[in-house]
Amino acid sequence: QMTVADDDISKLVDSEENYENPFRQSSVLPYRLGKKGLEVLMITSMKRKRWIIPKGIVEPDMTPWDSAAKEALEEAGVEGDVSSQKIGRYQYEKWGGLCRCDVFPLRVTKVHNTWLESEERDRTWVSGDEAVARLRHKKLKAIVRNFIQPRRDRS
To answer: pTM of the predicted model, to two decimals?
Structure first.
């Protein structure tokens, strides 16, 4: 017979969609402060060409933020100062499981003309509001909105 405590646990498990081991991913929000205020660098996804920010599986021998910075270099051709403080987490379904992605801000200090995935991806600088508008994932939109809001007020 199921007790109340067991029932509560089953609800928790169901809320995670029964995914026991989500894929750990990390992402960067590449940004710069320019004449027009805060700008975000967006890239296109490989298959559908949607506007996204760089992300990938956390490398086993790296911290999530350093792994995310590596993705920024490979996918967007940028380097900079990455924060070890995540600004949010979102999750989505991929590869038949759940991906859990932590987001770290990266202040861009160097932009390369060519990079590893420059043949497969486009990139563009947009305002913070435009970045929010272009992103599809609701939680990621909220994370970016929360990051740009106080910085918009200061510029």
So the answer is: 0.82
User: DSSP string of 46-83?
Assistant: TTT--EE--EEEPPTTS-HHHHHHHHIIIII-EEEEE-
Query: Residue 53: what residue type?
Result: I
Instruction: Give the position of tokens 């199921």.
Output: 2
Quick one: tokens of 132?
Answer: 């929010």
Query: Positive or negative, the Cα torsion across 130, 53, 104, 97?
Result: positive
Contact in structure between 79 and 72 (CB atoms under 8 Å) = yes
- The helix (run of H) or strand (run of E) holding residue 150 is helix 138-154
The model's pLDDT over 138-155, given as tens digits with 9 standing for 90+, comes to 999 999 999 998 765 554
